[in-house]
Amino acid sequence: AQSVAQPEDQVNVAEGNPLTVKCTYSVSGNPYLFWYVQYPNRGLQFLLKYITGDNLVKGSYGFEAEFNKSQTSFHLKKPSALVSDSALYFCAVGQRGDDKIIFGKGTRLHILP
Amino acid sequence: GAVVSQHPSWVICKSGTSVKIECRSLDFQATTMFWYRQFPKQSLMLMATSNEGSKATYEQGVEKDKFLINHASLTLSTLTVTSAHPEDSSFYICSARNPFSGIAYNEQFFGPGTRLTVL
């Protein structure tokens, strides 16, 4: 069975500093990995995905994530945080041949001015 | 492209009434749609997978008679919360998958969500 772990409920970062939001996963085969962001009372916005190919994936709004197969991780990163990045971030995992994707519990990111 | 809408965006109803939420794929045909429920400050919980023209597949613990799902066309799925009670109050989000995108992975496109409050 697939599972996703986001070990941090909340991450606080000063504006302008680099940020990392952690995600680890468990699947039986090759994973499809996603990051989504959610603003209050809104649906999910897609940030980036890893399907195959380069381990470093670049996405929207300057975010990127690195797929690490040996550590089964897919951490979200940004070199310089903005206050507007404050939101709830979800990591998700899927598998080829399975329609479902499984979400982590989410990490609330606070960027301090 | 790949826009998913939901209607209504919010609804308040009395206990015991039924509420219907619509999920539409606006610019693509979605043979598969998903319904999620999100409690405050929590993750998305998959409720059911809806396939056009067939019965929905419900996740364990989700009452199929309580949450009726219909996917009658390639662009519309509906979730009806029957005899709603205050504990059904939640944020309901749908997503749609475009299997004809030519991409062999299961990316989902999400609607903006519907806030249901049952008094």
What is the average per-residue confidence, as pLDDT of chain B, rounded to a whole number?
89
Main beta sheet of chain B: 7 strands, mixed
Tell me the structural class of chain B.
mainly beta
Terminal-residue CA separation of chain A: 41 Å
Regions of chain B with pLDDT < 50 over 5+ consecutive residues? none
Lay out the secondary structure.
The complex is a heterodimer of chains A (113) and B (119).
Chain A (H helix, E strand, L loop, with lengths): L2 E3 L4 E5 L4 E3 L2 E3 L4 E8 L5 E7 L5 E3 L5 E5 L4 E6 L8 E9 L5 E3 L3 E6 L1
Parallel strand pairs in A: 2-12
Antiparallel strand pairs in A: 1-4, 3-9, 5-6, 5-10, 7-8, 8-9, 10-11, 10-12
Chain B lengths: L3 E4 L2 E4 L5 E7 L6 E7 L5 E8 L5 E2 L8 E7 L2 E6 L8 E8 L11 E2 L3 E5 L1
Parallel strand pairs in B: 2-11
Antiparallel strand pairs in B: 1-3, 3-8, 4-5, 4-9, 5-6, 7-8, 9-10, 9-11
Descriptive report:
The complex is a heterodimer of chains A (113) and B (119). Chain A is mostly beta strands and 113 residues long. Helices cover 0% and strands 54% of the residues of chain A. In chain A, the strands form three sheets. In chain A, strands 2, 5, 6, 10, 11 and 12 form a six-stranded mixed sheet that branches. Chain A starts with a strand and ends with a strand. The model of chain A has no long low-confidence stretch (mean pLDDT 92). Chain B has 119 residues and is an all-beta fold. Chain B has no helices and eleven strands. The radius of gyration of chain B is 14 Å and the shape is globular. Chains A and B meet through β5, β6 and β11 of A and β5, β9 and β10 of B.
